[in-house]
Amino acid sequence: MVNRRQFISALGSVSLIGTAAATGSGLSAEDVPKEVPSGPIYLNQNENPLGMSPHAKKAANAALAYGHRYPDAMVRSLAAKIAHTEGLSNDSVIIGAGSTGLLIAQMFAMSGPNTTVIAPAPTFSRVERQCAVTGATYVPLPVNDRFEVDLEGLERLSAKTTGPVIVYIVTPNNPTGVLVPTNPLFNWIKRAPANVFFLIDEAYHDFVDDPAYQSAVSLVKEGYKNVFVARTFSKLHGMAGMRVGYGFGHADVTGKISAYYAPWNLALPSIAAAMASLDDTDFIARGKKSNSNGKAILTETLDALGLAHIPSQTNFVLHQITGDHQTYKDRMEEAGFLVGRYMNTGPGWNRVSIGTPEEMQAFCRTLKNFRDKDWI
Ligand SMILES: Cc1ncc(COP(=O)(O)O)c(C=O)c1O
Hints:
alpha/beta, Aspartate Aminotransferase, domain 2, Aspartate Aminotransferase, domain 1, 14 helices, 41% helix, binds pyridoxal-5'-phosphate
């Protein structure tokens, strides 16, 4: 087991956390690509094109000195740090190997052959795929023509269903980028019958700038036991490869879920990086700014080309294309851009992740070039 005091002091000695981050030392635009890289540009998996926080990288490196120790204490420290930030008790927070690890554990803990999982379509597919493992029935309900989640429709479906129900809501949704309105969702959670449980996926929570938005964590704080909220370090924190996610629930809920995975199954460098990243407020602000600049460059070009796009509260945009999606993807790949991971968006639409502003400028030049060739 890691001697936490030793480890924290090791972190401190290389100026990684706490005061060093707060004063912004070493936070010049280090590691931020200034040029468009020569390899393919990844605009297909909603990652952070800036990479990880420089402080997080240093923390991960420092953690290698403790690689021979089990990470339990550091995992608990990260949970406590997140719990403190949210004003929750430590047992309301669990840490997992990405939020995927927690979504899967929740499904193992709470679903079986008599469970119905109700979700909007399209949405992130991991929970649907997990139904095939636990034997639950997956019932998708299409979003409306403005790509909004039909909460009333979902509630009607749920009311008609006997046996346990899990309502899976991604907000803002992937691949549409659209927020599920806070009040109607919260009111449903508050009045829902005892057989209905809500799995709220806030993977893109960090990007939201709509002032009307509220995280479902507030319901956990109010003591509701019918909700679990999953979040991730994979997106704004740029740590998709490090595999750290976290979740919030009443202690009864987190207790049930943590019985279905090994909460210490995380690499020490990843936990150290997550702790340092949380403190790196400059990096977080830079990531948000870069994302909104990149998004503005993209949407301006889409508007100029007359290609419809859905207003997005995330780091990706669902936009119109003309012609066949696979052909579009293949041509983009030939031009050096990986776009449009298939997500049941149907023909005529593509999801593109936001790269750096420079990458988005290059992408937009390619879009215009495609228009010149009559490809979009
Ligand atoms: C809505 C949603 N939930 C969860 C995940 C998985 O994230 P993680 O890397 O934390 O497993 C993703 C990844 O793209 C996502 O879009």
